[in-house]
Amino acid sequence: MFVGPDGAHTALELQELAEELGIDRSVTVMGPVDEQGVASVLRASGVFVLLTDRENFGIALVEAMIADCAVLATRGVAAAEFVEQCKGGILLEAPDLQASANALKELSDSEDEVVAMGMRAGQFARDHLTWEESAKRYLEVFRGGRTNAS
C-alpha cells in the first residue's frame, strides 16, 4: 500500500508500474489521506517502510510505531534510533533497492516476528515518544540535565 502525496512518482505511475509487474492485485495506491485515514491505514498495516537518505525526525515513523507496526527504515531517519533501541524493525544503512527487497522478503516470511517487532515498537513509543514524555525530556535538557529515550 502506497500512501501519501505524489513525490518522485505519481500515484498513476505507481499503479501503472504495479500493473506492468503483474502485482496490481496486491498493491494499493491511495495517494494523500487525512489524519484519521493515516491512523486507520497504520492500524491495518503490519509493516511501515520509510527509506530515505535524510529525514530530520520522522514523525510518520513514530506514528507507525504507536500503531504497533514493525518498521523498515534507513538510518538517515533521525527517529530510526528508537527502532533500534526497542528492536522494533529492520534498519538499512541507506536506501538500496536490493537490500530493501531482501528486508521486505525477510519480514514477509516471518509474520510472528513482525507482530513481535510491532508490539515492541508500539510499547516503546507509548512509553517514551508521547508529547508529555517529549516535554519532560526537553525540560530536563533546558535545566541542564541529560536525558535519552531509553
From TrEMBL:
Q: Which SUPFAM superfamilies does this chain map to?
A: UDP-Glycosyltransferase/glycogen phosphorylase (SSF53756)
Recite the UniProt keywords alphabetically: Transferase
The UniProt entry, under Gene3D superfamilies, shows: Glycogen Phosphorylase B
Domain named Glycosyl transferase family: residues: 10-120
Lipid metabolism recorded as keyword: no
User: Could you name the domain of life of the organism this protein comes from?
Assistant: Bacteria
Residue spans crossing the bilayer: none
Quote the protein name from its UniProt record: Glycosyl transferase family 1 domain-containing protein
Q: Which GO terms describe its molecular function?
A: glycosyltransferase activity
InterPro entries annotated for this entry? Answer: Glyco_trans_1 (IPR001296)
Transferase among keywords? yes
Mind telling me which Pfam families this protein's record contains?
Answer: Glycos_transf_1 (PF00534)
